[in-house]
Fold:
Amino acid sequence: MTSPGAVAPIVRMTGIAKRFGDCQAIADASLEVAAGEIHALVGENGAGKSTLMRILAGLFPPDAGTVEVSGHDVTGWSAAEAIRASVGMVHQHFMLVPPLTITENVILGREPRRGLSIDMPRAHREVAAAADRNGFRMNVRACVRDLSVGEQQRVEILKTLVRGARILILDEPTAVLSPPEVQELWRVLRALRADGGTIILITHKLDEVTEISDMITVMRAGRTVARFPTAGASPASIARAMVGRDVALMTEAPVPQPPAAPRAAAGGLEVRHLVVAGERRARAVDDVSFTVAPGEIFGIAGVEGNGQSALIEAIVGLRRATSGEIRLGDRDITARSVRERDALGLAHIPEDRHRRGLVLDFSIADNLILGRQREYDRRGSLDRARVLADARAAIERADIRPSDPELPARALSGGNQQKIVIARALARDTAALVAAQPTRGVDVGAIEQIHARLRAARDAGTAILLVSAELSEVLALSDRVAVMYGGRIVSIVPRAQASQETLGPLMTGAA
Amino acid sequence: MSDAATASPAPAPARRARVAEALLPPLVALLVSVVAGDLLILAVGQSPGAVYRLMLEGTWGNAYGFAQVLYKTTTLVCTGLAVAVGLRAGLFNIGAEGQLAAGGLGAALVGLALPAGTTGLIAIPLCTVAAFAAGGAVGYVPGVLRARWGAHEVITTIMLNFIVLAFLSWILTGRLRVPETVHTHAIHAGALPRLSAWWAPFHGSAANASLFIVLVAAAATSWYLFHTSRGYELRAVGLQPEAAESGGVNVGNTWIRALALSGALAGLGGINFVLGYEHYYEEGFATGAGFLGIAVALVGRSNPLGVVLAALFFATLSQGGLAINALVPKQMVDALQGVVILAMAASVPEVRRLLTLRRRAR
Structure:
């Protein structure tokens, strides 16, 4: 993949391969990035994007291939060398110390000194100047823990820039941002580009790619498979390159049909004046009420950290409600255990499959029976034959790959892991389903399939509560849409009246 | 459907590779400890070959020595299983020492309470259950403390060792002991036959039929962990408590159950000395065996079969230490045990790394 352009690329990675244990993360990847461009590195989850960029940032060496930066061969360099050569990476998970101020976080490890102590006035001055120069509006004396996620991300970017980064790598930077915060990020990135900086943006969101980038490199299954200028590329063509075939894009999804006629006697899910305590706040969920009718998808949009996790955990029984009532059909389930709620027909797709959804070291088959294990008891021991037979059927139905039920869940890609979680939740008729971030970290092809399964469950009469940080997902699936902010439901509207434009401001508490 | 799925780079980890990963670390640790042992022996001016020959002759080389190895193995299997069950549930039970002693006194109390001449068919099961229950009761306490109040089991099991041993000592010295000794009177019923009753060359050795009871316990533990729904829940809680909780498993109750079972298995070890060997409870009858159980469980990879093999190994070392005392100080064996544990802890990640490298090279 040699560019015909006369200008030598500032980053050139050729024939990169990297293997972790049994997993060939990157098979053959090449990347060329010109100075002063915003380069989108796109691909499905598990395609190897983050791994490729971590190699560039010096976090680990490639098994094969060469890395050149500004014309020098730097293959296998260390993270410290990468920083010295102006390559900086902003990770998905922030590396900030919450109780410290913005200034303290930014200068950490390179504090200006006066004698034995830190020269704080000078530090504040310098960090504030750097923030101004880069167009960040922030109070450098504020504590990081008091900042919104978007602001924390800007601190992380500022930290990288202050360390002298001219080649900035951002790993899925918009995953935790509300739409207005995303726009703010684009403003910052465009300013950096105007200033001569080079930006590599890892993402799997197609609208972002077309909106912000100049060039696109597509990865699939550990290989770079396409490279083209953004101008002239359509989301559909990018998706085709990512997946290797045509896919139905979420944004093109039809407006959902009105809910099917509720099945007789089925009750749905109801939450009345629910208050739930959180780790830091006494009222993480603050007087929330709503109903989800059978055969309806009720979507809750909102920036993460506004009480959604506490709400979900209270509904499925993982966290005690301070006050209020949760009803499933005509039963009050507020005081019931997780197991009892499950037995009454309340299924759950947890928001974090690695933490709550799967026992990663268990086999696929063992994960598929989690929560139902006692039903497989036969004369005192687990009926292995039936566990495996049911697992094979579920693997076939949900198209989980690879299809060996004895493989540990850890060996699967994110999308296939999520299919295990969803197959388990939908394994039998459920009255209600709490689906939290059902497609987080899942590739485009699997998203399509997971959405189809949720719609099918809805059409079969299940009351579905969908909680997602992806506004587009909420809009694509829901029959009614609510917005959660600061622990409260600030708005509930029918799908037809909901749009990115009307909901975006609500998500930031602006309305 | 998608290429995405086939693309996921996850070739089946060959079963053989998994077996290699399970077996290699103990072998590497063994090798390292042999080398370290060589150096230690050379340092005191002896020939490693002579010392190892003596060690083998004193253990596997003659019937008495081998029977003594079996005797020591019996207790270590119990404490090793105890620690292994805890580890499977994600809990570190450091209290096997006290649980083992409690089990011994439990067996002795029942054996003393039964009328003399009670048939072994009744007395042996009763005494065995008493040992099991006494250890289980001691394990239950840190289980409840952890589940209800979040008290960390490492702290509570360590501290409980002191409390339990002091309590047992108080009971013993208060009313039970034979004057001028630290042991009880001989039990009236429940004594287990020595192995020498069946095979004369074992004569003089303490090895007894509790070995068989303990091996059955190891098999039952394996069945419980890997073939029952409760064992499934225990392992799920150990690997990922939050996922188990989401699946409706009561994590706190599973912790209590696991620590009670862990304590019970340690307590079972008490029958080896009390029912099988001296027929009375004696203070300090198995000092160190509880803590050595941690090493047994680590080297046995928390797998009941592995625990049995590791117990056999540590028992050999321990008995071998007596045999080589003429040439080198027997404390050398303690040092070797330490080396094995350290080498084991270091070799697990190291072996995994090397296996990965080798696979990549192919």
